Predict the 3D structure of the following.
Amino acid sequence: MSKVALFCVSALVLLAWMPQDVRAYCPNGCNAQGTCGKNDKCTCYLRQDEEALGYPAYKGADCSMRTCPYGDAWVSVPMTTNGGHDKVECSNRGNCDYSTGHCTCFAGYEGKACERTECPNNCNGRGICLTLEAIIAASPAKFVSAAIAGVPAVVGVPAVPATPSTPAVPAVIAVPAVLAVPAVYYSPGDYMAWDAIKHMGCYCDQGYRGPDCSLKECPSGADVLLAHGNVQGRDCGGRGKCNYESGDCECFPGYYGTSCESQTTVH
């Protein structure tokens, strides 16, 4: 056997024993952000953040592009009976900057993965921005089961009387951490809407209302058209028009008072 032939055979034997990763040649060495495998193909490293554990941290043939945070897709095609809202970059409500790995959210959305809606006008400084779950939990008089489930107290919440199926809920005067709410509302065991912590709304300060807390409340009173004994708090008692800019009642003819509660005496 010639020296040339012997060299070639030795080289082939050595090559056969070399690890695959050493023999492979991947573009740009996968930029040290992935491993080079068979067919010179990069397998990019996975994310380590808890929200998207197991999803790629980098993408591209050479793993040169940084992925953006993953969130539940606002819109997706369900592939199974109980499937839907798969994890996608920027929750498909924003654009990913693959050079920085940051989402630029579409108007009306916010969060590192554009995973929640914004509160309109930041509640105009007259309220706090909460998830719908938290808003419901902050109104246990209307959603009794939420109060029973141990939702923190809220200023001004009236007592809820006992019923044959539910215990009484005492009136509350303490100021709570409203955000610390359980994952239960309406009634224990009911379906938990996937977007209950994604849609945000304004929980207005006392004296204000509206989607962005921009409207001033007017004094309320019982509607005179209701049957005797029934009480319903209506703006200006249903006997006037509320000026939401000033918070004052503009009473209908024949009525007067801060809530139009008095009737003009006719002689």
